[in-house]
Write a structure and sequence with these properties.
Bound molecules: D-xylitol-5-phosphate, zinc ion
Largest sheet: 8 strands, parallel
CATH topology: TIM Barrel
Strand content: 15-25%
Order of helices and strands: HEHEHEHEHEEHEHEHH
Number of helices: 9
Helix content: 25-40%
Low-confidence stretches: none
Length: 237
């Protein structure tokens, strides 16, 4: 939103800390993107997840700041936020662009930069909330040195990043529990990958409050109904 230079907006932090399903547009029908995002917002979604991939950190190439810009007005008018997951090398180079385009929350991968502290500082300075993501093989301790002062959100990948529709890695539940218990209470915990009706509840029980769902929502004929079913399965209002 970039309305709050020097730190994330309170409304953004509030939404990120609540129990929520965050539909990922990665699996949406791009010829009807606005319509599909409107459907999940009408069903109650207030956090829309945007997966940016560069063909280097992960093999696929998706989209970037232009996609954030295309969605920003619609999402913000509904009181929802854009949760941008950067799966790109040296993400600090793109923080300002993505924030200017209308992101509310920006998450970078710890594996993608030697300058995590700098990247998180840049995100906060851009007016967005700052997230750090860890791949399945990355230890939760990689967030220890930034958790207290710079982190608003910790994202635990429960599949290898790069593709929607993969199977949930069961070990992620133990990892989520360790992540949650090692972080200050104000840091949101997001789980991403393989979350659907059968896996959602255990993610919440393990300590995640934000559940990203791509194919389980947008890969179905009725995204709003799928959203509601997953929210109910997770015990999320
Ligand atoms: C994968 C992305 C995810 C993806 C999840 O690298 O970060 O956000 O959309 O897709 P599903 O929910 O289908 O596993
Ligand atoms: Zn993602």
């Amino acid at each position: 939103m970039a309305e709050h230079p020097g730190g994330p907006a309170d409304a953004t932090l509030r939404l990120l800390r609540e129990p929520r399903i965050a539909p990922s547009i990665l699996s949406a029908d791009f010829t009807r993107l606005g319509e599909q995002v409107g459907e999940v917002i009408a069903a109650g979604a207030r956090v829309i997840h945007v997966d940016v991939m560069d063909g280097r950190f992960v093999a696929p190439i998706t989209f970037g700041a232009l996609m954030v810009e295309a969605l920003a007005d619609q999402v913000h008018a509904a009181g929802a936020i854009l949760d941008v997951h950067l799966m790109i090398e040296r993400p600090e180079r793109y923080v300002a662009d993505v924030a200017r385009a209308g992101a509310d929350s920006i998450t970078v991968h710890v594996e993608a930069t030697p300058h995590l502290h700098y990247a998180l500082q840049a995100i906060r300075e851009s007016g967005c909330s700052a997230g750090a993501a860890i791949c399945p093989a990355t230890p939760t301790s990689s967030l220890d040195e930034v958790a207290h002062e710079l982190l608003d959100l910790a994202l635990c990948m429960s599949v290898n990043p790069g593709w929607g529709g993969q199977e949930f890695i069961p070990w992620s539940l133990q990892k989520l529990a360790r992540l949650r218990s090692g972080l200050p209470d104000h840091v949101a915990v997001e789980v991403d990958g393989g979350v659907h009706e059968a896996t959602a509840r255990s993610c919440v029980e393990a300590g995640a409050n934000l559940l990203v769902t791509g194919s389980a929502v947008f890969g179905t004929p009725d995204p709003a109904a799928a959203y509601a079913a997953i929210a109910a399965a997770a015990g999320i209002g």
